[in-house]
Amino acid sequence: MMSGQDGQKKEGKRPVLDPNSLKPWHQMVASGSGALITAITMTPLDVVKIRLQAQAKPMKSGQCFFYCNGLMDHMCHCLNGSKPGTTAPWYKAPSKFNGTLDAFVKIARNEGVFKLWSGLSPTLLMALPATILYYTSYDQLKYRLDYKQGVKGEFWKPMLAGGGARLFACTVIAPLELIRTKMQSRPFTYAEMIGCVRTAVSEEGIMSLWRGWSPMVWRDVPFSVILWLNYEPLKARICKEYGLTTPTFPIAFFSGAFAGTVAGVLTQPFDVLKTHRQLEMGEIGDMRRSKEVSSSTLNIMKRLYAAKGLNGLYAGTLPRLFKITPACAIMIGSYELGKSVFLADVK
């Protein structure tokens, strides 16, 4: 007869995740699904937040501002007073909102429900493949390093895998990120953008397309290292407590939220630096002048610290955490859930 304790262990036992249990395309589908869920969930929250902030301090035409829907940053050009028939700007002169719920209701009622997902299309076009590349590379690198969950002394493997995967993803998408940022900084036609890129490549070489790579790496690689350094041990500890070998959605959700919060706080100065570099690109009318105008990442850090001290380097920490914490929780939780679905099939 099976004892109650043995029965509990057997009931809680789940398939072991090893290098041969999942194919890369399983991880690609799981990460793509997680990115889609994250974007759909987070975009309306950020649209409402931007509208509420704009209500308190309306912006002038021609200004740029940033928002992030949990997966990527968007530079938005304020086009108040644009002519009828032109493309609707992402920023719209705000209505009178009395709070978050009131903003949801009024935007949906007066402008249409789909306005709550403004900016979703460029997110899916850009962030979806980037997220798939990142998460798939992370798992593949982790497996190649023969990472064993819950074993002491293995902490460096998620760190190395996370940093390597993010460096690889940043390098691949950097040219697309530069082009996307330029197109969001002011109205560009595709013909103008192609001509701008050709001119930059012919005069400065192909490496000009990777301008902005440095601040992106400075922020995203440390964030990834810290994220997985905290996520994997916490996930392993909770799984061990409940007698599980793979995490359930709540375990992954909670662990992702905690790890994302820690990584967000520690890498906030690099996020501030990246925003300053992107704003510089948004103020430049010609890519050929960007080399002359832009400062190095280190110079920007020194200038900010000299002017405002640590407060300048940690500006916007709380608003960023309000986006990062749920975004990491949803993304990682959805990703682990997707993998568990494939695990059930392969087993």
Automatic annotation (TrEMBL):
Q: Which domain of life is it from?
A: Eukaryota
Q: Where is this region: Disordered?
A: 1-22
Q: Which Pfam families does the entry mention?
A: Mito_carr
Compartments annotated for it: namely:
Mitochondrion inner membrane
What protein does this entry describe?
Answer: Solute carrier family 25 member 40
The UniProt regions of compositional bias labelled Basic and acidic residues, in chain numbering, are: 7-16
Xref: Gene3D superfamilies: Mitochondrial carrier domain (1.50.40.10)
> Which keywords describe this protein according to UniProt?
Membrane, Mitochondrion, Mitochondrion inner membrane, Repeat, Transmembrane, Transmembrane helix, Transport
Q: Where are the Solcar repeats?
A: 22-144, 153-237, 247-341
**InterPro entries named among the record's database cross-references:** MCP_dom_sf, MCP_transmembrane, Mtm1-like
Tell me its family.
Answer: Belongs to the mitochondrial carrier (TC 2.A.29) family.
Coiled-coil residues: none
Natural source organism: Strongylocentrotus purpuratus
